[in-house]
Specification:
The chain is mainly alpha-helical. The chain folds into 3 domains: 18-54; 57-104; 110-187, Herpes Virus-1. Helix content is 57%, strand content 5%. It has a 3-stranded antiparallel beta sheet. A hairpin with a 6-residue loop joins strand 2 and strand 3 (155-157). It catalyses: S-ubiquitinyl-[E2 ubiquitin-conjugating enzyme]-L-cysteine + [acceptor protein]-L-lysine = [E2 ubiquitin-conjugating enzyme]-L-cysteine + N(6)-ubiquitinyl-[acceptor protein]-L-lysine. Keywords: Membrane, Metal-binding, Transferase, Transmembrane, Transmembrane helix, Ubl conjugation pathway, Zinc, Zinc-finger. Its main location: membrane.
């Protein structure tokens, strides 16, 4: 039994079907791509509109306007477009900075530091694993005042760690939160 070669009519039909499926797939991919582009544009416009409403015009900083005017004078862009773009971008940036400043975590007060991390002399600590402050990289002297973190027992010059704790609530070495050990230390 010899296999007969496929008839030319059957082979042409298969190629036409295959080409039609490729064409349909290509059209589908193009439509999905266009849909994604339109969706991206819509989302971008909504974000821009939201940002414009978030930054109120009354918060406009006069210094920002002066900077925008200076850039406008030294630019090849059309005047109105450049000014509008610069002021708008600076309003957004200024609003964002104000937003961050309002929500910034404040550090610890000096009174709280004295209660939670009392000053001790380096000599009174006895043998420690650290012989230098990792903040200033200076060595410890026997009569220097230091603070010891209650959780990790890391030692620092009191002035170095006080400056650090004004902006951070963690140990500079291991990043343990000071508040975790303070409640323990205050109850003992």
């Amino acid at each position: 039994m010899e296999a007969s070669p496929p008839s030319p009519d059957n082979n042409e039909h298969t190629n036409v079907t295959y080409d039609l499926q490729n064409f349909q797939t290509s059209i589908f991919v193009c439509l999905v791509g266009i849909l994604l582009i339109v969706l991206f544009i819509q989302i971008s416009e909504r974000v821009v509109t939201w940002l414009r409403h978030e930054v109120a015009v009354d918060h406009l900083d006069l210094e920002l306007v002066q900077i925008a005017n200076y850039q406008l004078e030294n630019s090849d862009w059309p005047d109105e477009a450049m000014a509008q773009n610069n002021v708008w971008v600076m309003e957004i940036f200024n609003g964002f900075m104000v937003y961050l400043a309002e929500r910034q975590v404040s550090g610890l007060t000096p009174e709280f530091l004295e209660q939670a991390l009392p000053c001790v002399t380096y000599k009174s600590l006895g043998q420690t694993t650290l012989d230098e402050c990792v903040i200033c990289l200076d060595g410890f002297e026997d009569d220097e005042m230091c603070r010891v973190f209650p959780v990790c027992e890391h030692v620092f010059h009191f002035s170095c760690i006080d400056n650090w704790l004004r902006n951070h609530l963690t140990c500079p070495i291991c990043r343990n939160c000071i508040l975790d050990g303070v409640s323990m230390a205050l109850t003992m």
